Amino acid sequence: MDADKGRAKKMVVKNLSFFYGGSKALTDVSLDFYANQVTALIGPSGCGKSTLLRCLNRMNDLIPYSRSEGQVLLDGESIYDPKVDVVSLRRRVGMVFQKPNPFPKTIFENVAYGLRVNGVKDRSTIEQKVEDTLKNAALWEEVKERLYDSALGLSGGQQQRLCIARALAVEPEVVLMDEPASALDPIATQKIEELIHHLKKCYTIIIVTHNMQQAARVSDVTAFFYLGKLIEAGVTDTIFTRPKLKQTEEYITGRFG
Amino acid sequence: MKASQRSGQSRRRKEKSIRILFFAVASASILTLSLIIIFLFMEGVPIFEKVSLKEFILGKYWYPTYDPPEFGIFPLIVASLAVTAVASLISIPLGVMTAAYLAEIASSRLREIVKPIVELLAALPSVVIGFFGMVVVAPFLQNTFNLATGLNLFNAALMLAFMSVPTICSISEDAIFSVPKELKEASLALGATHWETIWRVIVPASISGISTAVILGMSRAMGETMVVLMVAGGAGMIPTSLFDPVRPLPASIAAEMAEAPFRGDHYSALFATGIVLFAFTLLFNLVADHVSNKYRQVGAATL
Amino acid sequence: MTDGSISKKALKSLSLPGGGRGRSGENPGDRAGVQSRRKIIQRVMFAFFKAAAVINAIALMIIVSFLVAKGYRAINWSFLTEPPIDSMTKGGILPCIVGTLCLSLGAIIVALPIGVASAVYLHEYARPGRVLRLIRLGINNLAGVPSVVFGLFGLAFFVVYLQMGVSILAGCLTLGALTLPVIIGSAEEALRAVPDTYREASLGLGATKWQTIYRVVLPAALPGVLTGAILGISRAAGETAPIMFTAAVFFTPSLPTSIFDEIMALPYHIYVLATAGTEIEKTRHLQYGTALVLIVLVLGLNLVAIIYRARLRKRRTG
C-alpha cells in the first residue's frame, strides 16, 4: 500500500463482524479508507461488501435482530459508541443507493430535502445550494429549466445523478455508493464514473461494484471480499495486475462469481 | 463534536418522545376494547344478583317485562347460533368459490369488474339489506311457502349470508392469491388440469387462510344487528323449523334497550346479553387470529 | 411446514390418473377418455365458480335496482330539503341527511388521526414482539366487536358515564371507535406501499426517523390514507345499531345547533319508518326514498374510493 503513505485515514474498520439473526454476514474485517480516495469493494454476490458499506453509516441498524462486533472509526472516533448520534453520523457519511430512489417530489425539493431536515430555512441559501450541488453533480445544465418538475420524470441516469446531488447537498465527508451504476445504461454509467472521479477531490468515496472494469477505472484502492471475509486489499493497479492471492486473481479474471 | 453531541442528545430525546407518543396513540385500540369490556360488565353484572349465571344462559324463557320477569336467554342464543349456521351454509361456498374464481379463474378484465361488486356488496348498509329482506324477501317467502310470516330464521340467514360473503371472499382471495406460484406451476407441469391444481394444491395450501375467512365471516353474521332485528321475526322461542320466527341476541338488545328502564333489571339483562354476544364474537376472532398466525408462519417458511 | 407437505402429497397423487395409467400400457383411447373427462370436470366446476361470482353481482344488482325503481319517485327537491311533517308520514328527510353527514364526518375526525398514528406506529416504529402482537390483537378484536355492542358501550360510557347524553358527540365517538380498525387497516396498507428506498434515502441523508415519516413517508402514503378515510366515512354513514342508543332519535323538529344535540339519521329513519311507524304501509315511498338516498351516498363514496385506488395502483405499477 505504498501509494497510501502520508494520506489521512478517514475511516478505519477494525475486526468487524456482522450478524443477521443467526447468520454471520461479515467475519473479522479490518480495512482502512483514506481521505480523498476512491475505495472499491468488490466480490461475488453475498460476499458481504454491501453489508460492510451499510455498517459504515449504520444503515444496518434498521434491520431487526442484527448486531455487530468490532469497531468502525470515523476520524478516530468509534461510530458504534453509544454516545454517537446516528443521525449526525449519517449527515457526515452520506449514501447513494443501487437503484435511483428520488422522492416523489420536484427535482428542487429532492436536493433541498437534506438541507431542510438539517434546519436550513432561508430560501435563497437553499436555492444557491441546490444550484451549486446540481452543478457539482453535473446535472445542472440538464435540469435547470425544469427544477420544479417531478424528479420521477428524469431518466434513470439523471435520477441517479440527482440522488448523488441529494447526498452531496448536506456536505457529507464520506460518500458511500452501493453499486450506483448497476441499473444504468453504459452512457449513464460513464457519466456517473466521471462524476465520481471529479468528486474525490472533495470527498472520501467508498463504492461497491459488481463490475471489475468499473472498479479498475474509478478506484484508487480495491478490496476483494469473499464469503464475508476480506481476502485482499491494496492499490487498485496492483490488485488488478499482480494480485497476491490466487482467489483474487481467479475472481478478477472472471473464473468465478 | 461536543456541540453536535449535545444537539444529537436533544434530537434523540425528541425522537424518543415522538415514538412514545405514537405508541400511546396506537394503544387506543386496546384501550377502547378494554373500556368496552369494562363497561359491559359494569352495567351487565348487576343482573346476576337477581338470576344466576346458569339461569340466565340456560333459562328457556325471556319475558323481561312480565311480572315477575324471566331472564333466560337460551332461546336467543340458539336463535343466534341457528341463523349463523344457516347463513354459513350459504355464505361459505358462495364466498370461497367467488374468491377462487377471482384469484384463479377470472380473466383480469372480469376480475376488475367482479371485485368492486363484492366490495360494494360489503358496503351496503345493513339497514338497507334488512329493509330489502322485509319488503321483498319476506312477502316472497310467505307466498311461496304459504307461511304465517316471511320474517323468520331462513330469511334472516339468507340476508346475513350476503352480508358475510364479502368478508369471506376478500380474506380467502388474499390467502389463495398468496400461494406461491411455484406450487401451482409444479402441479400444472405434472399434467394436472387447472381445476385439479386448484382443488388439490391451491386450496390445501391456503386452507388456514380460508378458515380464518370463514370464522371471521361467521363472526360478522353473528354480530350483525339490523338484519336480524328487522327480518328474523322477533319471537323469543327456540326454533323448531327453518321458517320459525326467531329473536337472536343482537335483535333483542337493539329492540328492547329503548324501552328498558335506565339501570333497571331489564337494562342490565340486556348488557349481560351484550356480554354473551361479545364473548361469542371474541371467541370467533381469537380463533381466527390463532389460525391466521399459524398460517402466516407457514407462508413465510414456504417462501 | 404442514402446508408444504400437504401440497407435496397432493402433487404426488396428481400424477396418477392420467400419467400413471398411460405408462402401464393401457390403450390410448382410454387415456384420451380420462383426459376429456378431466376437462369436463374442470369445465363444470369452473361454471359453478363463475355462477357463485355471478350470484353476488345479481344480488347487488337486484337490491340496488329495486331501491332505485321504487325510490326514485319519492326523491325530489323538497324531499331532500324539507323536514318530515304530519308525524313523519309526509315531507322530506333533510334532518336525517344533515344528521348522517354530521355523524360520519365527526366519526372520521375522531378516527382518522388516531388511526393514522396507530398505523404509523405499527408500520414504522414497532419492532416485532409481544407488544406489537398485543396491539394487533386489540385492533383485530375491535374490528370484530358487533355493532350493537358498540352501541351498548357508547350508551354506558359516552352517554351515561361521561354524561354527554344522547348527542352528536356521543354518536361520533362511538362511530369513531367502530371505524378505527378500518382506518388503521387502510393506512397501514398505504404505508406498506411506500417503497423502503424512500425511507433509506431519507435516513441516509441524516434525516431523523420522524423527519423521514413526516416529510417523505406520509406524503407518499397520503392518497391511500385518503381512500381509507372515504371508506371510513361511508362505513360510519351506514351504521344504525351504534347510534340507536347514543345519538339518533325518532324525530327532532329542528336541525342541530350544537354537538350536544340529539339528531335524526338516514339509517335510523329507515328503521323507524319501516318497523315502528304508525302507518308503515302508507310511508313505504318515504322508506324507499330514504333507503335510496342512503345507498347513493354510501355506494357513491365507495365507488369514488375504489376508482381512486385503482388509479393509484395503476400509477404505482405502470
Gross morphology of chain A: globular
- Examine the secondary-structure arrangement and name the CATH architecture of chain C: Orthogonal Bundle
Give me the CATH superfamily of chain C.
Answer: MetI-like
Structural class of chain C: mainly alpha
H/E element sequence of chain C: HHHHEEHHHHHHHHH
Which band does the percent of strand residues of chain C land in? under 5%
Give the tally of β-strands of chain A: 10
Uncertain segments of chain C: 1-26
CATH class category name of chain C = Mainly Alpha
Rg of chain A, Å, rounded: 18 Å
Mean pLDDT of chain C: 86
The number of domains of chain C is: 1
Alpha-carbon Rg of chain C, integer: 27 Å
The overall pLDDT average of chain A reads: 88
Number of helices of chain A: 10
- Helices of chain C, by number, come to 13
Helix content of chain A: 25-40%
Oligomer: heterotrimer
Enumerate the spans of chain A where pLDDT stays under 50 for 5 or more consecutive residues.
Answer: none
What would the keywords be for this entry?
heterotrimer; A: 257 residues; alpha/beta; six-stranded mixed beta sheet; four-stranded antiparallel beta sheet; B: 303 residues; mainly alpha; MetI-like fold; 2 domains; 13 helices; 1% strand
Word description of this protein:
The complex is a heterotrimer of chains A (257), B (303) and C (318). Chain A is α/β, with parallel strands linked by helices. Helices cover 35% and strands 26% of the residues of chain A. Chain A is built from ten helices and ten strands. Chain A has helices at residues 49-55, 86-92, 107-117, 123-136, 140-143, 156-169, 186-199, 212-218, 236-241, 246-252, and strands at 9-20, 23-34, 38-42, 66-74, 77-78, 93-96, 174-178, 204-208, 221-226, 229-235. The longest helix of chain A has 14 residues, at 123-136. Chain A is globular, with a radius of gyration of 18 Å. The model of chain A has no long low-confidence stretch (mean pLDDT 88). Chain B has 303 residues and is mainly α. Chain B folds into two domains: 2-49; 54-302, MetI-like (MetI-like fold). Chain B contains 13 helices and two strands, in the order αααββαααααααααα. A two-stranded antiparallel ribbon of chain B has the order 1-2. In chain B, a hairpin with a 6-residue loop joins strand 1 (62-63) and strand 2 (70-71). Chain B is flat. Chain C is mostly helical and 318 residues long. Chain C has one domain (77-317): MetI-like (MetI-like fold). Chain C has 13 helices and two strands; from the N terminus they run ααααββααααααααα. Chain C has helices at 2-14, 16-23, 28-71, 77-81, 94-125, 130-144, 147-161, 168-192, 196-204, 209-238, 241-244, 266-276, 284-317, and strands at residues 84-85, 90-91. In chain C, strand 1 and strand 2 form a beta hairpin. Chain C starts with a helix and ends with a helix. Residues 1-26 of chain C have low confidence and may be disordered.
